[in-house]
Amino acid sequence: MSQNTPDSTYRCDICGRRFYAADHHILHRGVRHPETMTKDEQDAYREAYRAEAAAIRSFRIRALGVLVVLYFGFLFLYVIYAS
Ligand SMILES: [Zn+2]
């Protein structure tokens, strides 16, 4: 087995897709096969969804910060060296 092959312990019972992490597996179940989930799996899906949404929001804020720093960095470089 290659090191990049997903672990077969996180394998979808319905479609056979495999995942690297339990969170990815439960998110897949919640999006693709919500009708087959138990109450505990639905709770795990909601928790994983909240964690994923918080991570995405954090990434967006950091990406915006990087863009602002790059924009003003190049702007100041232009003002200093091109004028
Ligand atoms: Zn599936």
Q: Can you offer a commentary on this structure?
A:
The chain is 65% helix and 0% strand. With 83 residues, it is an all-alpha fold. The chain has one domain (22-81). The mean pLDDT is 92. It binds zinc ion (ZN). Zinc ion is lined by residues 12, 14-15, 17, 28, 32-33.
Percent of residues in β-strands: under 5%
From the alpha-carbon coordinates, what is the Rg to the nearest angstrom? 21 Å
Number of helices: 2
What small molecules are bound in this structure?
A: zinc ion
Task: Indicate how many domains the architecture comprises.
Answer: 1
Oligomer: single chain
Structural class: mainly alpha
Described by strand count, sense and barrel closure, the largest sheet is: none
Estimate the global geometry from the Cα principal axes.
elongated
User: How many strand units?
Assistant: 0
The helical percent reads 55-70%
N- to C-terminal separation? Answer: 59 Å
Average pLDDT taken over every residue: 92
Detail the poorly predicted runs. none
Instruction: List SSEs in N-to-C order.
Output: HH
Organism: Haloquadratum walsbyi J07HQW1
Keywords: Membrane, Transmembrane, Transmembrane helix
Transmembrane segments: 63-81
Protein name: C2H2-type domain-containing protein
